[in-house]
Predict the structure.
Amino acid sequence: MNAVDAKKNDINQVAAALGVGLLFGGGLTISGMINPAKILAFLDLAGNWDPSLIVVMCTALLVAAIGYRIVFARSAPLFAEKFSLPTKKDIDARLVSGAALFGIGWGLSGLCPGPAISALAVAPLNVVTFLVALAAGIVTYRYADAWMASSELGASAK
């Protein structure tokens, strides 16, 4: 593949990602999943429980299942030479602790990254604090992970 074709592929990948992101954000907005109160009502099993999140999740799973069947019937993606799929399949402490932190943050705020970014379009002041905390958590994780990796390497080299 020459440089011009590679650049065109990169632009197509970014355009496709932007289109899918806008579609996802629109779906979150239409379904009301950008409203933290709706998420917190789903988590309130003993109070005024709102099951609409289950409907949205099941619908998303159905759409994804159909999409995967269509996409993986192809020999390669539209804008890449091969599929890029995760290879790691084991459940380890990093996965479990990350999922737990995500769930705690979601339960406390009623927001996760996708809906928070979508909510910027309709209620920016309400989600800025969440997004700042999210960015701080990402930066903290990267530094802590690099520090732990370097200390593990140093300890194993001795």
About this structure: The first helix runs from residue 3 to 31. The radius of gyration is 20 Å. Helices lie at 3-31, 36-43, 52-71, 93-109, 113-119, 124-157. Residues 149 and 155 are 10 Å apart (CA to CA).
